[in-house]
């Protein structure tokens, strides 16, 4: 039975729904929603974008299930209202609320906001403002909920440190339970806000920004990130020892409206040790921990039974690398025969896709899309980035796929990688030409009209905790020049070429490696109307340039400047477990074009994550030392 | 349907889909209290069991109210469900008696021109409104109960009728919500539910 406050909020909300786009974004009662109106402790789990993007986020789904299983705790969802609804809410003075019980976020005990992408930062401020919570952590009192961050961007939390009371570094399954327990205990003991934050800082993996002070030299250089009040010098990520300790999310909330990736998901493994040097995920999610085949099949069937979805995705950074993937697909194909359910494998690597895998994925009767990421156009460049894929691998993979009946494939490439030359750019065009030739050769003439090679090209953004974290991002003018070189080298027919907006990549580069000076810029941009920056139609670089100028911050000095390896970086106090020395060595090997093998199969390469964090690679249910 | 484990029929063709057909679409921004769909099964399940299984697999608030078998050769729901009853809830300042008079004045004209997607549409009210709308007070709100007839050339939106009536009578206030509360098959002079 809903309380009077919620009834009043619903009545006011209901009058707005007929006048906004996609009103299903703002209601709940979907299948499998979990609601506990009597819970003593309430956490709002916020994805900083719209409902239809947030519902695909597996981290929120995992934490939702985990926290709702705790006695006395309710975890509820919240997403960012689109501009029309936000305007209406401000006009009608309706606070941002959780979907499950219409609880205003400001009345929750904890607001957990995941940080999936740097261009969602203005949406974080939109959430706090709509919730009526002070934007800056320093302005919050005992009356306000704790604002906790997490997710991939937490590995350089400094641009948003001012807005969060605490930030979890790493995996949340176990940590979030400890955080809630610590918070509940602190509340029960009547702690002040400062005491609460100290209690949270004692939870391993929790970074409390107010307990650290960046120290700058007179010339503005960052020289130290000083821990205060007994805070740890380094905050080390949390990671699960094994992915098999609990089942995948087998009964997620099923939305009423179309959302992205609208299908059942089973996370088959976490981590990737292929060692691609540009890839932050490959560093921060180490080591590889697989869910064993038995568990995957069990959870997949449970997820399809509970949800009623007709598509299942086996997700991870590189699902085809799972040591038991063919067994998993064979067993699922048998179980799902005649049901019309399709199984998809996103994030395929060129060198782990095989004819056997192709036949298994297509045997469900519906071919879902194939996407590969060769990333670079020449072998030299692929060796620099440690993408150990030969041109023959890609061509053979494409041949296999088209012979098995696929007619569309998407290829991802990057330009602006360290040491890149025009020859490497032209190499992308050459590679795509070869792919087109092979696709045409093996496709019957009557079916060639359906052939489509999608090529998506993004601009490299150096990220924290990668071997390229010291490298400069290429300036915008140079991006445009290289794009022009690539356009000239691409085949004209059968190819759909798309670009990731270079302006967006530039801003991403600033946010990814900036420090606390970026907080003022984010707030200024938000106050100037920046929202939903990850949406092409909403992104405005001029708004951001104006914000940088107002705040006296030079974005090019952040994005386009090469760092010295002895510099203090804004994230130097955050550890993903991979040693800085390893990253330096990998950078040296990149310049030399020396590949580094995959430690999951070819022996330890010395990154230190297993030794220092007490973790181990787990393949097929067995730990490997 | 999949969660309930029904052996449903699928369409023929390159991309087989569940063979399911819904009744008349709800107008945009209109809720529905009693909507219908037809689904074809490959295996018989007794209606009470089907209702139970579907209810167990449905979200709260969107569950099935009734299940029944219909003949294979029956006309589609879209063709047979031609009468719809709506409840239009208005904001607090609208007086029900004034609204009733305003509706009466619009109906007396006999036709109503409505703009839809930039085009003017004219509705013959004797055909479009098989029953006179009623404005009443309920729990402190003014509600207009409007019954419309749906046809091949479109249906009069109940909220559009109410808005026009309010505009012509210079009544303050706004439409807050619109809900389709029932659907009927016309059986001569009588109306009946399909189940």
Question: How would you describe this structure to a colleague?
Answer:
The complex is a heterodimer of chains A (625) and B (195). Chain A is of the alpha/beta class and 625 residues long. Chain A folds into 2 domains: 233 residues, Cobalamin-binding domain (Rossmann fold); 341 residues, tm_1862 like domain (pyruvate-formate lyase- activating enzyme), CATH 3.80.30.20. Chain A has 22 helices and 21 strands. In chain A, the strands form 7 sheets. Chain A has a 6-stranded mixed β-sheet with strand order 2-1-3-4-5-6. In chain A, strands 15-16-17-18 form a 4-stranded parallel β-sheet. A 3-stranded parallel β-sheet of chain A has the order 10-13-14, with helices on one face. In chain A, strand 17, helix 15 and strand 18 form a beta-alpha-beta unit. In chain A, helix 5 crosses helix 17. Chain A is globular. The model of chain A has no long low-confidence stretch (mean pLDDT 94). Chain B has a domain of 112 residues: 2-Layer Sandwich (Alpha-Beta Plaits), CATH 3.30.70.3190. In chain B, strands 2, 4, 7, 8, 9 and 10 form a 6-stranded mixed β-sheet that branches. A two-stranded antiparallel sheet of chain B has the order 1-3. A two-stranded antiparallel sheet of chain B has the order 5-6. Classes of the chains: A alpha/beta (625), B alpha+beta (195).
